[in-house]
User: Which sequence fits this backbone?
């Protein structure tokens, strides 16, 4: 396991602050108020994350006798309060209950564990059997889901803009992948390294969904968060790796701001320097690689990306060019001068990221 000089966990949400900022200014008072409450709660959790980083988080170890190829999951219910972790409602091996949200969270944690274990031989998020804990029904109309460096937390959504955050399995996979990044490359959560942090979460979130559904690259929708938007919203998902900038275009939610190439790179001080925005560029590059290679995306394309993330050479301050260069080197080292290297080279050229 690499930690790139010691991991510093960050507070990562699936809904970016700039989206909630837009909703907080909505003419509909009910929508605006719920977005503001979510922003306030996110600010509190972000501060708590910083304090935990300074004071030290509890070390979670797998239970004695735990198998390396099996997860250790615990689901808690916050009962619409904001105290973590809440009441334990399901443990590893327990049968499904009546609460569909609890069951989806449990299954999503398992799906994430399975992809990393069976495909990349990684024992949980930290590579050492870290127990997977989650809390559901967090807060009142809470419009987000997040990884706080120790566990997953899911809101129920407001029902107007966002639905239950356990509905899309790729949202669960996305947030848990922040944990994988935390324990490996430890990418700084600002600017291009922050966008790469978000990019890895979108990549493996999508791969977890594809793996669960048994889809090939051509069968996949390449959407992040499909099924999360409420019926009144004009859109299909939070982001599109196939066509960044087209996931939604709504009177209240606004328009998807993601660029697909460096020609439209967004320079901003918001959203930690555009981490959820400019991630569309490497996202599109991965889509191009995966579809060029066809078959199951978690195999060759996913393996290259996973190897770079966990290989110890990706600096915590890496730029897009730094990362792209490493993917070329890994493709060449693993597959020679064949179609894998050609696909990776062409993809970065198409999105306008230079390589060294």
Assistant:
């Amino acid at each position: 396991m690499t930690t790139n000089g010691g991991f510093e966990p960050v507070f990562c949400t699936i809904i970016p602050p700039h989206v909630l900022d837009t909703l907080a200014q909505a003419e509909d008072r009910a929508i605006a108020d719920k977005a503001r409450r979510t922003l306030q709660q996110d600010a509190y959790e972000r501060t708590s994350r910083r304090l935990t980083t300074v004071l030290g988080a509890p070390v979670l170890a797998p239970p004695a006798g735990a198998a390396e190829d099996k997860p250790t999951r615990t689901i808690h219910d916050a009962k619409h309060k904001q105290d973590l972790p809440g009441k334990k409602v399901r443990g590893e091996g327990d049968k499904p209950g009546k609460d569909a949200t609890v069951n989806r969270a449990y299954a999503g944690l398992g799906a994430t564990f399975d992809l990393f274990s069976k495909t990349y031989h990684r024992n949980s998020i930290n590579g050492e059997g870290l127990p997977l804990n989650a809390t559901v029904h967090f807060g009142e109309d809470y419009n987000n889901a997040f990884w706080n460096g120790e566990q997953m937390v899911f809101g129920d959504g407001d029902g107007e803009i966002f639905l239950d955050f356990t509905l899309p399995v790729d949202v669960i996979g996305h947030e848990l992948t922040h944990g994988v990044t935390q324990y490996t490359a430890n990418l700084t959560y600002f600017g291009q390294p922050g966008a790469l942090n978000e990019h890895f979460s979108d990549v493996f979130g999508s791969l977890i969904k594809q793996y669960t559904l048994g889809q090939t690259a051509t069968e996949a929708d390449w959407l992040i968060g499909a099924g999360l938007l409420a019926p009144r919203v004009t859109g299909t998902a939070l982001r599109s790796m196939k066509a960044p900038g087209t996931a939604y275009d709504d009177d209240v939610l606004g328009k998807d701001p993601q660029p697909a190439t460096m020609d439209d790179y967004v320079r901003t001080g918001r959203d930690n320097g555009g981490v959820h925005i400019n991630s569309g560029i490497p996202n599109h590059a991965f889509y191009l690689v995966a579809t060029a290679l066809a078959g199951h995306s978690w195999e060759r394309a996913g393996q290259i990306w996973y190897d770079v993330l966990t290989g110890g050479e990706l600096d915590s301050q890496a730029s897009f060019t730094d990362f792209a260069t490493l993917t070329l080197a890994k493709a060449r080292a693993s597959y020679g001068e064949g179609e894998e290297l050609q696909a990776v080279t062409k993809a970065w050229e198409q999105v306008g990221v230079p390589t060294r």
About this structure: The first strand starts at residue 12 and ends at 13. Residues 1-6, 51-58 have pLDDT under 50 and may be disordered. The beta strands are 12-13, 73-77, 87-91, 132-136, 145-147, 152-154, 223-224, 239-240, 249-250, 254-255.
